[in-house]
């Protein structure tokens, strides 16, 4: 694409300066009229967060996105770049992205005064008009606003009183750009104060210099409500100057959460070809996150990030892939037993309250998994606790009788598909039970057969023993009697 190369050519083209927020507003209006998707990849916010963001842009507001971790706050901010013009003209060599027809820096003004219409013009792409800074306690005023540069003063042989010795920080360099500060409460109060006049008047103050730079910046801040008590707060005068505060949230349904997981999971193409994940397992993963957000063991204020299910899904696939590689299989189905490889992704993504710490991260993860399995089990099979008294036929009767006869069933974590299916087929009545209450066929049928066993353990019909490399299912009563006999033997020996 050909662009004007000098100030004279730019003037002849009819170019007129346009404020950044007006540019965002105009482009948003055009996209809304054309019904274009503006925030591509953001799922679950179509009726809540995104309309609020669009209203803020139309109002030409600075924005504060407030929400718990893993709620796509930074991603929304980054997608605002698509509302910018593809290219804008700047004075070539300018540190502050000076508009050729409305320069603000000493450099640009001096250059235009000297070269006139021959002033060289450069073109800045929209991707270069986005600046992001993570707020940390060590961020200084010099980082954000600027400071006197003694090296520049010495090189140019200028006194410190000359404006040209200033080294500008990130904020002035974001002139005509979107500037994002993540985790705003982590920024020290005295640093937040330095943003006051920029938001209100466009003024900045560096050491003893009196500068009035009419900076044109779209500010977007993100914050976690938990930060207000744990690490810091947004000082009231600054918060008052941020016109729109928008609350984000976690996915409202399991289906929406699942779409996010599928979109964000970073699987290698080989993994996708080698491992198939049954729908019921994907649903169990999502239920774990929903249950964790309401769990008495998990810190509600800290939240449970959407990254939990993303990491867990990746681990689930990798666990099945590892098993397939060990058994030299070209393709396999993920199993419920593969969830033991998912535990590290759960324990690393939840903050526990005191009761949870007492239980321990591993046990809390297993409890969350058990509750999710039970919910999916009851969604497909009759509730054993609600079977009517005097009911002629117990749907679980044959399975229970098989285990009551002293039989046990072991599922090895790394068993190949043939061994896995053979172990499940050995349980009398299990296949017929599953075929009666589900429409599953083929490999997926075995997934539901395993779900039935896990569900019966969660309903206290069977006992499940978790070993290092396998799961063992047996009759609950027989297991209790076995424990009593062991206790009796120990007392006898004593």
Report what the structure shows:
This protein is α/β, with parallel strands linked by helices and 494 residues long. The protein folds into three domains: 7-247, 3-Layer(aba) Sandwich (Rossmann fold), CATH 3.40.50; 252-380, Helicase, Ruva Protein, domain 3, CATH 1.10.8; 386-494, Arc Repressor Mutant, subunit A (Orthogonal Bundle). The protein contains 24 helices and 16 strands. It has helices at 7-12, 20-33, 49-58, 73-79, 106-115, 141-144, 150-156, 170-173, 189-193, 196-200, 227-230, 236-241, 254-264, 269-274, 279-293, 307-326, 343-347, 354-359, 361-380, 397-404, 417-425, 430-437, 442-458, 476-493, and strands at 63-66, 87-91, 121-125, 130-134, 146-148, 166-168, 177-182, 204-206, 209-211, 217-223, 244-247, 275-276, 332-333, 409-412, 462-466, 470-475. The chain has a five-stranded parallel β-sheet with strand order 4-7-10-1-11, covered by helices on one side. Helix 13 (254-264) crosses helix 15, helix 15 runs antiparallel to helix 16 and helix 15 (279-293) crosses helix 19. The longest helix is centred in the middle third of the chain and has 20 residues, at 307-326. The radius of gyration is 31 Å and the shape is elongated. 36% of the residues are buried.
Using the 3D structure, state the CATH architecture of the largest domain.
3-Layer(aba) Sandwich
Beta-strand content estimate? 5-15%
For CATH, the homologous superfamily of the largest domain is named as P-loop containing nucleotide triphosphate hydrolases
Helix content: 40-55%
CATH class of the largest domain: Alpha Beta
Rg over CA atoms: 31 Å
CATH topology assignment of the largest domain: Rossmann fold
Describe the global form.
elongated
């Amino acid at each position: 694409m050909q662009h004007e190369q000098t100030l004279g050519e730019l003037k002849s083209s009819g170019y007129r300066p346009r404020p950044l927020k007006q540019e965002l507003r105009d482009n948003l209006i055009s996209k809304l009229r054309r019904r274009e998707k503006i925030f591509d990849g953001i799922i679950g916010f179509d009726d809540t967060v995104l309309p609020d963001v669009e209203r803020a842009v139309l109002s030409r507001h600075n924005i504060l996105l407030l929400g718990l971790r893993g709620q796509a706050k930074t991603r929304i901010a980054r997608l605002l770049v698509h509302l910018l013009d593809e290219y804008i003209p700047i004075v070539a060599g300018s540190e502050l992205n000076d508009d050729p027809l409305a320069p603000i820096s000493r450099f640009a003004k001096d250059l235009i005064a000297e070269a006139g219409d021959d002033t060289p013009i450069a073109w800045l792409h929209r991707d270069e008009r986005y600046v992001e800074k993570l707020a940390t306690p060590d961020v200084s005023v010099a980082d954000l606003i600027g400071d006197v540069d003694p090296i520049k003063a010495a090189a140019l042989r200028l006194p410190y009183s000359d404006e040209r010795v200033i080294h500008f920080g990130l904020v002035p360099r974001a002139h005509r750009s979107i500037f994002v500060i993540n985790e705003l409460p982590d920024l020290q109060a005295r640093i937040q104060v330095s943003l006051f006049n920029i938001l209100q008047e466009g003024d900045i103050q560096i050491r003893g210099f009196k500068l009035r730079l009419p900076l044109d910046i779209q500010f977007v801040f993100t914050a976690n409500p938990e930060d207000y008590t744990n690490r810091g707060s947004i000082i009231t005068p600054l918060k008052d100057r941020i016109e729109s505060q928008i609350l984000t949230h976690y996915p409202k349904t399991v289906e929406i959460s699942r779409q996010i997981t599928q979109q964000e999971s970073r699987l290698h193409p080989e993994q996708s070809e080698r491992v198939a994940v049954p729908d019921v397992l994907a649903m169990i993963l999502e239920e774990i996150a929903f249950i964790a957000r309401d769990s008495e063991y998990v810190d509600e204020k800290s939240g449970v990030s959407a990254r939990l299910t993303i990491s867990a899904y990746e681990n689930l696939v990798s666990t099945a892939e590892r098993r397939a590689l060990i058994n030299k299989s070209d393709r396999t189905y993920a199993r419920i037993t593969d969830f033991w490889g998912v535990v590290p992704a759960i324990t690393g993504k939840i903050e526990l309250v005191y009761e949870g710490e007492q239980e321990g991260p591993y046990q809390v993860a297993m409890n969350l998994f058990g509750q999710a399995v039970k919910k999916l089990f009851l969604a497909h099979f009759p509730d054993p606790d609600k079977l009517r008294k005097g009911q002629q036929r117990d749907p679980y009767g044959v399975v229970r009788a098989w285990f009551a006869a002293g039989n046990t069933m072991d599922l090895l974590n790394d068993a190949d598909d043939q061994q896995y299916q053979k172990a499940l087929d050995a349980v009398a009545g299990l296949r017929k039970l599953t075929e009666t209450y589900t429409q599953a066929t083929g490999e997926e049928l075995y997934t539901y057969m395993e779900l039935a066993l896990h569900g019966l353990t969660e309903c206290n019909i069977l006992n499940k023993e978790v070993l290092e490399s396998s799961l063992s299912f047996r009759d609950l009563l027989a297991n209790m009697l076995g424990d009593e006999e062991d206790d009796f033997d120990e007392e006898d020996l004593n």
